[in-house]
Amino acid sequence: MKNLGYKIPEDVVIEILSRLPVKTLLRFKCACTTWFTIIGSHCFIQKHLNMALEDSNKARLFIVHRSNKYEKFLTSFVNDDELTLQTNLSFDTKRLGRISCVMGPCHGLFCIYYERHNKLLLWNPATRETKDIPKSSIPLPSNENTAQYVGFGFDSNTRDYKVVKILIQFHRDRYSDYHVEVYTLSTNSWRKIEATISDFDLCSYMFPTYWNETYYWWGQTEEDYEDIIVCFDMCIEQFYRILLPTEVLPMVHGRRYANHCFTEYNGSLGVIFCFMGVTTSLCELWTMNGHGAKVSWTKQYYIGLFETRTMRPLMILKSKIILFTNKNHDIIPYDHVTQTMRAPLPDDAIIKIKSYEWIENLWITSGGSYTESLVRIGDGK
């Protein structure tokens, strides 16, 4: 083909490239020096991320599993509309042992926590880049009768990624000491913060979540064991308590909160409250209005009463279909309009790890919405 001598303006090239998937862009970095420089620049990475976050069609469902047998952390990326498998990624954990918690995604990044070794690392599945987070050199209180919790997110004020670590030391008189540290990716270091935090414990068996620069855990007050939500604002580095809607507290006599979960619903952070009885489970969807301490609740709808106590909600899809999982690790779509369960996703649509006990499954299988990115974790940009 004859070269007409026409050069495409760089801004047009950037506009075209910014619409391409990460896998394609990584290949295109090898095409020429100009493209290598463009695709690797901070401005382009940010532009590509912003466009991906604004395009809801680029978000994919992810479901996280862990296999004790194969010592791998597995992530299934699934097409939301058709519920068909798109990609499976595995992360070998042999060198560090069993994963305790998978946090994220935040801008396409996950943070993986190994409690046994007190080890944290960052992972970008799209670029396959990982980064070991250094251990803190800050002296800790005695590690007797302690529990440790972590959260991961983004601070838009400093444009930095952060990990918050909470160490709670319990005493016999039911009084607890709290030690809080924050890691920032740009400095690759930890620092202790004097956060206002007291009189609650966090629940390790229920899934936390990240939403709009805030990390959320399930917790209980120390005084009367009331269920609450505890959140940490990544920008101002403060903790808040969120009380649950009073309408759901006395809903069903003899039931207790057990399998509730966070989920996205119509652009807001929602909660599927799932009350467990002896043989049944009852579920409702509520959404949060506001942020931090100023949160109110809106009930969206009653989901249903299920004749089983082993169903646990995972999330609500864009199509308003609700995904549940059970003790057999099946992923089961539920249509709340017709109040009917659909057939479980076929084995070729999702990885199912059947070697777990049910109580482990409460902590291991989780899901959410994932958008791939070029965000680098080696230098925080």
TrEMBL record:
Against Gene3D superfamilies, the record matches this protein to: 1.20.1280.50
Recorded superkingdom: Eukaryota
Q: Which SMART domains match?
A: FBOX (SM00256)
One Pfam match:
F-box
Instruction: Identify the residues that the record assigns to the F-box domain, covering every copy.
Output: 8-48
The UniProt entry, under CDD domains, shows: F-box_AtFBW1-like
Q: What is this protein called?
A: F-box protein CPR30
Give the organism, scientific name.
Answer: Forsythia ovata
